[in-house]
Specification:
3-stranded antiparallel sheet, 4 helices, 88 residues, alpha+beta, single chain
């Protein structure tokens, strides 16, 4: 995982929750973590990661803080800890 992806991953877990994260950057990080992304019905994106599945809206602009929290929870549920697995 390159530095840009690590930076995005850590931004997802930052406090307070960032509202300036690009959806394309998040998709790239999920792919780097081993996730399989697929376009779904209604402009949504499905992600399979470590035996877990989640479906997210595909926004055209920055992620809303609630969406950041959803992605964060999905990554945690998949057993990934950014501090442990991908330190800066």
């Amino acid at each position: 995982m390159n530095h840009k992806h690590r930076k995005t991953l850590h931004a997802l877990f930052a406090h307070p929750v960032s509202a300036n994260i690009s959806p394309k950057a998040v998709h790239a990080v999920l792919g780097e973590l081993g996730g399989e992304l697929e376009d779904r019905h209604g402009g949504r994106v499905g992600v399979h990661l470590n035996g877990h599945f989640a479906e997210f809206a595909h926004p055209h602009h920055s992620l809303h803080p609630d969406e950041v929290r959803q992605v964060r929870k999905f990554i945690e549920d998949a057993g990934i800890d950014p501090e442990r697995d991908y330190p800066l």
